[in-house]
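Fill in residues.
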């Protein structure tokens, strides 16, 4: 019996709002023993809000949709905040670095409100600050670690090319400084 070779799945283009740690923090995260050796450190990020999958939209409108989302992102007024990642959590599908973000609710609500201004239908997403270390469980369970901190002072619109393990940065915007607030 002849075997039929399956063709690889075509890449999907997902748009996300992300926050990326600064380079020195990326190096700290990449040095964690549970970081997958197959995960490129330049892909480390914190997903703030999935926006849409371009393949779900009419193909002839993809560029227009990207432009509209870029315009919306440029008008977002969201506050900065400190992220403190202090534990590694293993699930059935991944190993993630988890923690908290000062003002996370206000930050996420401002991003969603800004994107929704022109009636853009947003995917349901419950923002929980995390960075994926591996897309496979490693059998080591949960553990607390020495906290890794950074100030999220900008957000990015990224086109994630799923199937090619690639991020295309479409835009980057500064967040509003929290004047007079101390992050401790």
């Amino acid at each position: 019996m002849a075997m039929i070779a399956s063709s690889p799945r075509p890449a999907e283009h997902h748009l996300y709002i992300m926050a990326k740690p600064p380079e020195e923090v990326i190096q700290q995260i990449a040095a964690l023993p549970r970081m997958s050796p197959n995960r490129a450190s330049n892909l480390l990020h914190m997903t703030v809000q999935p926006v849409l999958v371009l393949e779900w939209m009419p193909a002839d409108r993809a560029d227009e949709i990207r432009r509209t989302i870029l315009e919306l992102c440029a008008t977002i007024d969201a506050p900065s905040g400190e992220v403190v990642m202090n534990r590694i959590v293993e699930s059935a599908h991944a190993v993630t670095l988890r923690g908290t973000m000062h003002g996370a609710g206000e930050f996420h609500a401002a991003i969603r409100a800004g994107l929704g201004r022109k009636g853009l239908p947003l995917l349901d997403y419950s923002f929980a600050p995390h960075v994926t270390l591996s897309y496979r469980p490693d059998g080591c369970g949960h553990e607390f670690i020495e906290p890794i901190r950074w100030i999220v002072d900008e957000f990015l619109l990224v086109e994630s090319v799923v199937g090619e393990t690639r991020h295309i940065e479409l835009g980057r915007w500064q967040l509003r400084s929290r004047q007079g607030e101390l992050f401790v």
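Residues 9 and 163 are 7 Å apart (CA to CA).
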